[in-house]
Write a structure and sequence with these properties.
This protein is α+β, with helices and mostly antiparallel strands and about 150 residues long. It has four helices and seven strands; from the N terminus they run βααβββαβαββ. The chain has one domain (about 5-150): 3-Layer(aba) Sandwich (Aminopeptidase), CATH 3.40.630. It has a seven-stranded mixed β-sheet with strand order 1-2-3-4-5-7-6.
Length: about 150
Amino acid sequence: MSNYRLEELSALTVIAANGLTLREGQHDFLAPVSYSMADALTNRQTTWARVVLTGDTVVGFIRGNFDQDHPKEEFRACLWRINVAAEWQGKGVGRFAVLELLAEAKSRNFNRLTVIWERGDLGPGQFFERIGFVPIGETEFGEVIAAIEV
């Protein structure tokens, strides 16, 4: 994992992040990266958006949200989105990015981080559970809400 580094989402990296290709079937579980990027640029006070690079190549994107006053507890410190390029999945990119987001949450004095995902065989549930997220409930739409202690 030491070959990876994070950079703040910028004009230089946004195109590469938007062009990340996923494995077949994974697109069904995610809105386009551009949605997350647009929101990241308009909500700078609460958004933490980073790309994961190896050398000069963007191999992943992660977005967290930190809003101590959000009325829904699951959105106060949450992993909002993570994408890893298909050819880089299974190589520690996602784990690296989530660990960095956990460190950021800790530095902001949060004691847990949440994530929400849609159930499905090709969805991200197994990945999140391997990292240590534990289901704690579900949304009104039946999506899983999970948390990990920081």
